Amino acid sequence: MPTLVPILGDQLSHSLAALRAVPKSDAVILMMEVAEEATYVPHHPQKIALFFSAMRHFAEELRQAGWRVDYVPLDDPANTGSLSGEVTRAATRHGTARTLAVKAGEWRVLTAQQHWPNVTLLDDDRFLCSIDQFAAWAGPRKRLIMEDFYRIMRRQTGLLMDGDQPIGGQWNFDTENRKSVPKGQRFTPPIRFAPDAITAEVLALVNARFHNHFGTTASFAWPVTRTQALAALDDFITHRLAGFGDYQDAMVTGEDVLNHSLLSPAINLGLLGPLEVARAAEAAYQAGHAPLNAVEGFIRQIIGWREYVRGLYWFAGPDYTARNHLAATRPLPALFWGTPTGLKCLAEAVSATGRNAMAHHIQRLMILGNFAMLTGTDPSQVHRWYLAVYADAIEWVEAPNVIGMSQFADGGLMATKPYAAGGAYVNRMSDHCKACRYDVKQRTGPKACPLNSLYWDFLARHEEVLSSNQRLWRIYDGWRRFAPDEQQRIRTQAAHFLATLA
């Protein structure tokens, strides 16, 4: 009697623990496209297409490698529409003795896995830090500072290390990575992968079934195989890594990518391993092809931030996405779904998201996330939106970035202060304000940038909760220096804008 081995859409690694644990002759690989996973939030059509195409390509690779693969497409008339339904149906169909699977990357699916027939669940060892290792580190701490964790990971992997000390004499070069882009600067566009027959079939299916979801598949060019993912990695290392550090926090109108890697979807799907990506960047530094500030900043995102948020997600527990420290209740504003807005920075970020199922981290944190937090938007709704619209959004990575980092809804478990900003930050890090209908230098009045009054109103609303934060005392001191009538004008300005969001 064979062993049923279900493989999920973000487990597309030939070195997956379940594939290592059972002989090919004893296994039936089960892969499933199910409506439940495509619709529990209204995923961006490109995201759905990326998963389905990568899954179909991976299934074909497994067949060519000698595995017996049972692939259930979305349009199979017998498809039950759920993972558990398909696992149960396959166990009966193949008469399997047991089910062997790698633990899912989110609480919702893990809970379902635990009820699969005769199931044994294996730890996902594709990560550099196990869930137990992270819990042992986090358990004694009141605050989970990523920088502390990152140094442990640097020492554990040996990346950019000289013995026990960091190469260059410091761990973090972030202060060198906040430059605005000079006028006229041009960026090398990333490699694009034209849809093959498999991807074209998937795109037709997705466009027919999910055309009412936010976003378009018109620009679909993601890597959907390991070969393509390796080509994308080489393209980034060769053409964009050297400039990644300087402009990683910058925003430029009409430039969706700048020097970002666009590798997170391929890593999260399993087409690339985090350590091989980090080592490729380190090799570029060692060869003199990229400066240390760029390479360190990129490696920190891979072995520091990525591993950290995954560990925090599991450490915080299944109710993490329900946290709401600032008691925010506003419904998600319609502009997040593409309703026109006069704020240029928001319009750029939302339109890039719709076109590409991608926006870079500063757009996500300091434009979209900042706006949601300043307006008091319900963090659970913000979380569901991010989970829906980004190609790299799997809950273990998305939820901590939104609930903790972006919305401060976990009360500071991961972030030492809310990442709040007014128009001055956007003006410093982008060219958007020059083409905006609002004046970034005004706090009040009909032309005033809404972010300015929203910023101070946010601080005033939450003064009782936030004023004791050591990183905010100077800001609150500035607020208190405003004359009472100026404070009132600012808060009235914010209230008028917030009323328009209803």
From TrEMBL:
Keywords: Lyase. One of its GO terms (molecular function) is lyase activity. It holds the Pfam family DPRP. SUPFAM superfamilies: Cryptochrome/photolyase FAD-binding domain. InterPro entries: Crypto/Photolyase_FAD-like_sf, PhrB-like, Rossmann-like_a/b/a_fold, UV-DNA_repair_photolyase. Coiled coil: none annotated. PANTHER family: SLR1343 PROTEIN. This is Cryptochrome/photolyase family protein.
